[in-house]
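RESIDUES AND SHAPES:
===
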Amino acid sequence: MTKRLSYMTQTPEETMALGKALGTLLQGGELLALEGDLGAGKTHFIKGLALGMGVAETVTSPTFNLIHEYSGRLPLAHFDVYRLDSPAELENLGYEAYFYGSGVTAVEWSDQIQAYLPVDYLKIRFTAAGPQQRLIQFIPMGEGFDSLLEALQEACGLQPHTLEEDESIDKGACS
């Protein structure tokens, strides 16, 4: 059965810290597929992810540009596909070079382009659980994320959960 990690952040800063912890662990070639409503914390998480990857630039949402690229320890491509009229518009962006490349690709609103995602990716689902609290679930799709999730679990004190309904949520410390 596929394992997942669940984490409850209490503030935007904690959401960024969780992203930063993941960013320090990435090796390259990972696609992170982020899902969640507007204001659920996806961009805050990616800001932290970039910090963990050594990106010095200010990270902003590429809502109108669709993609921002950043240089750090590894290249980071940040997609926001919210404004795509059709998922097929990805083809004009040369998405394959990012989705199957050696850098890290983070895609906000990835549920809108499901057919274009590779077989192996890490789904990260964001759910508002209060004014600032966010439930963040890490769900591996395909192969190759076990060691990454184990390292994140160790770094942040997270507990694994099966994909069955398990309502226990971690409130560990990730810094």
Notes: Confidence is low (pLDDT under 50) at residues 162-168. DSSP finds four helices and eight strands in the chain. The domain at 3-162 is CATH 3.40.50.300 (Rossmann fold).
